[in-house]
Amino acid sequence: MIQNSISQPISLEEIKNKLTEYGLKATHQRLVVYDALQKTHLHPSAEEVYTLIHSDNPSISIATVYNTLDSFVEAKLITRVLSEEGKSRYDFNTHQHHHIYLCNTDEIIDYHDPELQKILTAYLKKKKLTNLTIHELQVHIKAEVINPKQKISIQ
Amino acid sequence: MIQNSISQPISLEEIKNKLTEYGLKATHQRLVVYDALQKTHLHPSAEEVYTLIHSDNPSISIATVYNTLDSFVEAKLITRVLSEEGKSRYDFNTHQHHHIYLCNTDEIIDYHDPELQKILTAYLKKKKLTNLTIHELQVHIKAEVINPKQKISIQ
DNA sequence: TTATTTGCAAAAACTTTGCATACGG
DNA sequence: CCGTATGCAAAGTTTTTGCAAATAA
User: From residue B124, how far is each of A46, A87, A116, B10, B66 by CA, in Å?
Assistant: First the structure.
């Protein structure tokens, strides 16, 4: 099975603590946005986050969603995920991991593989990098789902 | 030295042939856009391509640049490059290669490394992929330039 | 000649900003 | 209370589209 985010969703109380820990005021809007992010693994765009929360929280504006996501990225609570479409998508999982981009559905799936991470790190360590500090290494796997109705799994 | 696109720029006549070969009509606008792409290695956005060509070709509109880039991507003459900013950037180099994203300058550098490609391919072959066909494997290295005035090199 | 491509402008999609109000710490 | 965050609307970006005119094949 593909390991998406490994951890279980955390409670609203724990989100509150996490926000504070990262230097952010724990507002209702931020709790809601964070909760939506942790419950979906589809690396949503701002618009998609807005749609996810809107029926339960009609007063939260799209501008607030954008601002909230930006503040999360700045606080390093989430990251922007690489994408080929020209829009920002976000990743709740801040552990080093890889991504599988499904080109027939535009879905992005987390692929957690510490062994692969080690291999890459070791390989690049051998190379002489001049004038560069590496911050992150990630493999981007572009793939196609053969049967959209069946499950996807790795090993 | 980092290997950017390995090949030398090709002549306008050769671009013409290439366009035809890929099923695209060889219009002046397309020749100009392709030529601009092959001469820069900075993975430009549509806007940047427009700026690059505009002084010599003031009659080519930004809409045409967008349409041209789209038609190139569709014809598989170029690819969209992954980016964290929410806009499309393009890559003239269609050979399998990796990218180094310089987070302090927003530049994207090609990193051509067939050995790394082999290691990755072999590693993933060992994994049991169910219901997926892999189209592309690429490593995305996020790095910071230590001294912006000095050259960057790998091995 | 004919289907495709272009230029232009307008619309759509995506994102940021300014300012008065609300609210967490 | 104080300063940050929000809501809203408006402005700014980025990208797409529709249509008449131009042009490659």
Answer: 32, 29, 9, 35, 35
